[in-house]
Amino acid sequence: LGYADLACYGARNVKTPHIDRLASQGLRLTNAYAAAATSTPSRYGMLTGQYAWRRAGTDVAPGNAGMIIRPEQYTMADLFKAAGYRTAAFGKWHLGLGDKTGTQDWNGLVTPGLTDLGFDESYIMAATADRVPCVFMHNGRVADYDPTAPIEVNYRQNFAGEPTGRTHPELLYNLRSSHGHDMSIVNGIGRIGYMKGGGKALWKDEDIADSITRHAIDFIREQSQRAEPFFVYLATNDVHVPRFPHPRFRGQSSMGLRGDAIVQFDWSVGEVLRALDSLGIADNTLVVLSSDNGGVIDDGYDDRAEELLGGHNPSGRYRGYKYSAFEGGTRIPAIVRWPGVVRAGRSSEALVTQADWLASFAALLGVQLPTEAAPDSRDQLAVWLGQSRRSRPWILQQAADKTLGLRDERWKYIA
Length: 415
Fold this sequence. Notes:
Blueprint: H1 17-24, E1 27-33, H2 39-48, H3 76-82, E2 86-92, E3 121-125, E4 136-138, E5 141-142, E6 152-154, E7 185-186, E8 189-190, E9 194-196, H4 208-226, E10 230-235, H5 256-279, E11 287-290, H6 327-330, E12 331-337, E13 346-348, E14 352-353, H7 357-365, H8 381-384, E15 394-398, E16 404-408, E17 412-414
Parallel strand pairs: 1-13, 1-14, 2-3, 2-10
Antiparallel strand pairs: 1-12, 3-4, 4-5, 6-9, 7-8, 11-12, 15-16, 16-17
Helix pairs in contact: 1-5, 4-5
């Protein structure tokens, strides 16, 4: 999701009423950045408060990667757990599972997992929608596991007799690849990596948003009924490829599948906001919305995204897209809402990065971070609450090719 992909950030070819409402009721940050221009290092930075370039093995992860955040590291979930919150993660994970790459037994408990990182509950995709295994993981085990179709995953070679997008393009009945994404075929869509089995556990791409959103809302409702504080990390798959939204969202924008996926994302946000309202806990819930990197147009599938832009630029007036060291690679939309605490309808040009989220939450909760925790995170709570416009003096950003960008209040240096 790019900086300018939402109506409240200037998009004209797609409507995002629920996120617009969130922005009108909270603070819209206009100088917010992901820690990196791709998913894995960006999420690593946000959840640990440490720039990913400080650690080897934090590049974009294959679907069979071992867990990149190690159990001994302090995470955002650990912080909330220490403050007495029940914690949960839903959606796209892309930070690895299990001890070592390629050694997971997907037919049993995959450990270490999210419970070792401070999450009490989890319902996640092991990696991304374009990478195998194409199954959800519920608390460390494949959700809806089908014992008649044991799962095997390999990122080096295919399994005998299994069709691929490269050898059997006629089986790509839902989406064809524009580049890459021509290995195993699941739901008529080519993927990265090879898998065998899965049976009834295999997801249908058009149902991913419904499934993730439903599980998140069920958790919120359960915690509300228990009157227990909760922390939810909800990582929707939209607008990541393959863009294959549910049929009810098709044609809801003028930008084809990419635009319709943004509409679907907006719906997911709206469902969560509606749940908070119906449960009577909206005024006591801090909501932070952001993206893990800048937008991208053609990201491996022939979904006509470039053809149907209609003058739209996911990066707005900025140069570059996802993967890039330029502004469009890491500048993201970011909204903070807390009714009665965060003043509504305001915007801030303060320079912030997602790596700051952890220290900011610690300040809010009154929790002292361990000495070695979150070395790159800075407390921005005063900015969130509208009590200060003071920026960080500088932030660092990482491109896909490991190029670093240094941004201060006026300039950006790329090296």
